[in-house]
Amino acid sequence: MGKHFYAAAIPLVRLFIPKLKVEWEVPYDGEPCVFVANHERAIGPLEMAVNFPLRKESHIWIFADPLSRETTPAYVRQDHWWNENGKLAPLWNRIIPPVVSWILPPILRSVPHVPVYHDGRAATTMKESLRLLRAGRNLVIFPEIPTGYGEHDTEKINEGWLMILPMFEKREGKPLKIRPVRLDLASRRMIVRAPFTMDPALPLRDQVPELSRKVLRGIFDL
């Protein structure tokens, strides 16, 4: 399955997910940037892949494990797809992972994406992300940390992706913009926040806490 499947599936997916009204705090200026959004279980990625106005110019960061049929079962079991304390948890643990391993990988591979590795291939993720940004594309990243079924950490995000900021600035001579995206299903709104950047005059490590706080405030309305 390739990009043609992705394009053909969009009208069908739209029938089953809410249509969110897109609100831009600051209009998009055409410059490549990183959109960081809250996950909202599966709805967040679906909204960004199907209803986000800039989906054709954007590549989504997707964990490498669910891109492969062999590694998908373990990923599903560890990703809080169901309540591990529920009565049916043992049944779901046996049935859902193998079924999903046949369905999910080809679908995800058809979406414009960057595989995200957490091993020695992590450099590949950064290299491909930088190549796309320098070519004028955007990245879509879901940085929140799941802590259980339907739960996430509201005080900390995954921060490894921030390394792309000094890499881009060094090669392009300008800071890379970050735009948090708040997906609010209750009000059926997709709120794209005003952009912010790192300070190129300071080391990234000194700015990580503040950058993370800005992302958290943007995606969770904190």
What's a concise summary of this model?
The protein has 222 residues and is of the alpha/beta class.
What does this structure look like?
With 222 residues, this protein is α/β, with parallel strands linked by helices. The protein has one domain (3-69, 110-220). Helix content is 40%, strand content 21%. It is built from 7 helices and 9 strands. It has helices at 3-14, 43-50, 72-78, 89-110, 122-134, 164-172, 204-220; strands at residues 21-24, 33-37, 58-63, 113-116, 138-141, 144-148, 151-157, 177-184, 189-192. It has a 7-stranded mixed sheet with strand order 1-9-8-2-5-3-4, with helices on both faces. Helix 3 packs across helix 4 and helix 5 (122-134) packs across helix 6 (164-172). The longest helix has 22 residues, at 89-110. It is globular, with a radius of gyration of 18 Å. The termini are far apart.
List the SSEs and their pairings:
Blueprint: H1 3-14, E1 21-24, E2 33-37, H2 43-50, E3 58-63, H3 72-78, H4 89-110, E4 113-116, H5 122-134, E5 138-141, E6 144-148, E7 151-157, H6 164-172, E8 177-184, E9 189-192, H7 204-220
Parallel strand pairs: 1-9, 2-5, 2-8, 3-4, 3-5
Antiparallel strand pairs: 6-7, 8-9
